[in-house]
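### Sample
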Amino acid sequence: MSGKKVRYGIIGYGLLSATRLVPEAFGFKPGWKKPEHAELVGVSSRSDRNRKEIENLGIKWYTVDEMINSPDIDAVFIVTPNLSHKDIAIRALKAGKHVLLEKPMTTNVEDAEEIVKVAQECNKSLFIDHMMVFNGLNIKAKEIVDSKAIGEINDFVFHMEFGLALDKPNEWRSNAANEVGGPIGDVGSHCMYSLEYILGSKITKIAATYHPKFTQSNVEDGAYIKVFLENGNIGTVRVSFADRRGNDSSIPMQMGYEIYGSKKVLRTYGTLFQFSGVASEKPKIRLELDDSEGNVEQVKQEVVQDIYQSAVEHHALSILEGKRIDGKDGLHSMRLIAAAHESAKNGGKVIEIPRD
């Protein structure tokens, strides 16, 4: 290790790496702070198109093979097409690299199980980038739920609905079912991971139905998913690529959740998105408490941190402190995605979620 910082390489330089990971997660945006426990030392991609841009930042350009085998890199952040996740992750783990893997973990449960097994055998930290749990308002929502300030929970709805299949029908998420494209795998996974974190209980059963199909995309238009938690609570996840929700500013604000308690209702706007709540972001995410008598309290965001950088720091600290992350949360997420599709294809049949 290089002092107190884990040396990372990014494998895959597409839109996410260019707009979120290099500038924000690793602090190369002007005025953006750099992570305390991680540093970006290399980038690799299938194309050399962006090589000069990366090298101008002082970051070394690698081929994938060079990066996986480099003694100058401790961990890799894999941001490649989902079908390639298994091969690259296993090669990196066996080469002695810790792995931070973009979600979904892979394209099927069996491959996810194999990645987890190899990470355990190699004693490497494996974390899947479900970054929304690091949003300060989602952290605050969890604190409120845990404190019983809204009373006993009797229902909840987590939702991410927008018009991707209408506006970008050829984008891979609207087109590549074999890449786990579609709203269940792409954004349903975020909803389910986030609700388990905020409500403090794992999903044990799922029942789902697909929305009526009317777009030209090659994936489901949307889904209505009932989730049954280990603690007895039952709620809903709504996801769609075929529902517009206003203009470019208002669409992200419709991605959030409502948690219904015996005393109050907790509502968020924009917290199930790529927002962090930093001052430069527009529109502004928010969390409200409604006592059902017309009194609405705006809850202040106490923790303001970039969600992508926080995910990197979480992984880096697990390495520096010797507290290996086993990747099983990512495997569980893959099982939820698979169960939702299985249920929807079988008339909404209730599917039990396997547990290790």
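The radius of gyration is 20 Å. This sample (Oxidoreductase family, NAD-binding Rossmann fold containing protein) is used throughout the tutorial notebook.
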